[in-house]
Amino acid sequence: MTDAVAAIPEETAPVPLLEPREGLPPVVADEEALAATVAAFAGGSGPVAVDAERASGYRYGQRAYLIQLRRAGAGTALIDPIACPDLSALGAALADTEWVVHAATQDLPCLAEVGMRPQRLFDTELAGRLAGFPRVGLGPMTENVLGLSLAKEHSAVDWSTRPLPEPWLRYAALDVEVLVELRDALEQELEGQGKLGWALEEFAALAAAPLPTPRVDPWRRTSQLHKVRRRRQLAAVRELWQTRDRIARERDVSPGRVLPDAAIVNAALAMPLNAPALVAVSGFGPRVNRRQLDQWLAAVQRARELPESQLPPASAPHDGPPPPRAWAEKDPVAAARLSAARAAVSALAEEKNLPAENLITPDLVRRVSWEPPVQADAANVGAVLRRLGARQWQTDLVAPVVAAAFTKGSESEPESQS
């Protein structure tokens, strides 16, 4: 932390936050209770704190299993989105209200699934990053900024459990208890650092961003995939991944609970021909029943029988520059530009006391370094960054230092190639 961040002094012990101020509200689980909640929050005042609990690691997908809200004049509400799957009326009631969320990119997709999308928001996690806090989880932020400690022992529980235990509900209610106060303190801190305008641009971009679309070739995100080099083995990974995904979706369980990524990779490397050979692969074993073994073997067999023309390419198709590790061979000049630009961005991020990836995304630095404008001055570099999606505040800060780095790199180019 720098002196500019108004954190609670380290010698001051945080005060535990143990109970919601107005007590634990009942869970909203029917249309009558939902209608009363909509009316109460429509009649509230000021920003609304919003949070969602998912069952990551337990259930298939990222749907919300509990939604928490708090607003002045309305108190706290805990809503069961399984019992009340259409919250569009609540979303409409809060349409003109600023939402206060922590790590918005995690919660906005599952909130949109039930009909809730903000037009304005304040992301306390992102605000913490921009303000230079080294730890930006909700617990550390609440401690450092407000001097209050939140218990986090229920953060990774199975929120699809019904009925939800009271200690879990209390934990969930406390997550929105002081979120608006945290927002106000961070707004003041950002304003004092001259960064509030940056944050407002970021928040507006978050609110306006389209919902994420399904990934192309999601099986390529299998952990340890780098061990698989042959295209037919990659096809086995793809077939096993797709089989696992179908089973997980049908059973509504996390794919990792059906079969670990490591087992998929091990089977693809081994390409077993029969059940005993598959059982011998790490990650499979005697506990895997015969029906499941047959499904995994069938997946491997499909990969084995694919014609060459249908095997997946060795690397994922992409529309941007090649991986940076290949630049030195493909284009040494571009590699030098990238190295200089990265160093310049890192130095600027340190000077401004924020993470380099929040100052400018690494992908944009790579793209402008691979294909810089013909006249790589600050104005033209800035125009490229804006076209690629950088915010105005990012462009204003980054374009001059990247342009200067490109100029410095080009001046030293003959010497570096001699």
TrEMBL record:
Q: Which residues form the HRDC domain?
A: 230-310
Specify where the region named Disordered lies, as residue ranges: 308-327
Tell me which Pfam families the record gives: DNA_pol_A_exo1, DNA_pol_A_exoN, HRDC
Supply the Gene3D superfamilies for this chain: HRDC domain, Ribonuclease H-like superfamily/Ribonuclease H
Top-rank lineage group of the source organism = Bacteria
Task: Enumerate the PROSITE patterns for this protein.
Answer: HRDC
Q: Which PANTHER family does the record associate with it?
A: RIBONUCLEASE D
User: What protein is this chain from?
Assistant: HRDC domain-containing protein
Source species: Kitasatospora paranensis
Q: What is the lineage of its organism?
A: Bacteria, Bacillati, Actinomycetota, Actinomycetes, Kitasatosporales
